[in-house]
Amino acid sequence: MSRPAVLVARAVFPEVLAQLAQHFDVESNQADTIFSKPELIQRLQGKAGAFTTGSERIDADVLAACPQLRVVANMAVGYNNFDIPACTAAGVLATNTPDVLTETTADFGFALMMATARRMAESEHFLRRGEWTRWSYDMFAGSDVHGSTLGILGMGRIGQAIARRGALGFGMKVFYHNRSRLQTEQEAPLGARYVDKATLLSEADHLVLVLPYSASAHHAIGAAELAQMKPTATLTNIARGGIVDDAALAVALRERRIAAAGLDVFEGEPAVHPDLLTVPNVVLTPHIASSTLATRRAMADLAAQNLIAALTGGVPPTPINGELLKRA
Ligand code: DGY
Fold first, then answer.
1. Domain 5-99+293-327 falls in which CATH fold?
2. Secondary structure of 206-255 in the HEC alphabet?
3. Closest protein CA for atom 3 of ligand 1
4. Beta-carbon neighbour count of residue 132 at 10 Å?
5. What pLDDT is attached to residue 182?
6. From 29's CA, which of 197, 204, 245, 325 has a CA 20 to 30 Å away?
7. Ligand 1 centroid distance, CA of 76 (Å)
8. At what angle do helices 102-117 and 157-164 cross, to 10 degrees?
């Protein structure tokens, strides 16, 4: 019996390709080219599965042009690159990689928030430019993290892991806003207080965005929301580009309407809004919140397990549109 063919759309650990090759005819992309939509469609011809990352968009056009496709396995917890209703309508199972990246991503979110509050990038650039000639009483004076109010927008697994760091490690007061309120037993150990978005914006000393991207989350933080924040507050975005209006944020940072921002994700990344590159009070990183070798390997392994299970009669561990499995 011939083996299913799969496309691995971006470069990945060779060990993961080897796992996949035990089950499938694998077309890989170790050159790590970013496929245009026509090229993605062309490479998916005859493929039953695709191992994707956030850079491959699986939408109704792609699905219609690739009728043999049965599963798309994203190596990411976020899946805004998938049109899930279109996948479900086409009978294509979609999977992602939750849980394995939670703690690593929370570590990074907390580190980025701290670097932002304590002006680490700005002061490092100053030092590298040779401008450090003497000590002064208010040099790069930032704002305290310990004992301050941590605001979390999006209280899923990663949001809760950041809240734990803040509450238990740094004595922070935790306010959060989310589609749904946590159970009392989840809130209590963190002392986390569920508030409306306006209260979150006006009370947070350090606001961290961890909500998934959706059309309704587009520009959830724009000029109006930034205006509600304290002028001393910081904003950290490790969620998705597009949740923040980057142009409005650059204006707010330049005019010091908020103190500083830390951004790991950007609208239209890898392009970065040019105004963000010229304001000093922002820490910029290239979408690396989940990037430790151990976690990226765990994500790749989980994506591979999903693909293998879906195409060999097993149960994929982390389906998104799992209703398709019940139908089968
Ligand atoms: C995710 O998993 O969604 C990350 O943003 C990709 O590294």
1. Rossmann fold (3.40.50)
2. EEEECCCCCHHHCCCECHHHHHCCCCCCEEEECCCCCCECHHHHHHHHHC
3. 78
4. 11
5. 97
6. 325
7. 4
8. 50
* Per-residue confidence (pLDDT) for residue 2, from 0 to 100: 84
**Are 5-99+293-327 and 102-284 in the same CATH fold?**
yes
Known catalytic membership, residue 323: no
Contact 59/86 with Cβ under 8 angstroms? yes
Residues with CB under 6 A from ligand 1: 54, 76-78, 101, 290
Q: Which of 70, 240, 273, 296 is catalytic?
A: 240
Nearest to 249 by CA among 66, 190, 229: 229
Q: Which atom of ligand 1 is nearest to the CA of 54?
A: 6
The whole-number pLDDT of residue 327 equals 73
Distance 29 CA to ligand 1 centre (A): 19
Rounded to two decimals, what is the model's pTM? 0.97
- Which numbered atom of ligand 1 lies nearest the CA of 296? 7
- Read off the tokens for 170: 């740094």
Domain locations along the chain: 5-99+293-327, 102-284
240 is catalytic: yes
Q: Quick one: pLDDT at residue 328?
A: 65
CATH code: domain 102-284 is 3.40.50.720
Contact of 193 with 175, CB cutoff 8 Å? yes
Give the mean pLDDT per block of 10 residues along the chain (328 residues): 93 98 98 98 98 98 98 98 98 98 98 98 98 98 98 98 98 97 97 98 98 96 98 98 98 98 97 98 98 98 98 98 88
Give residue 170's pLDDT: 98
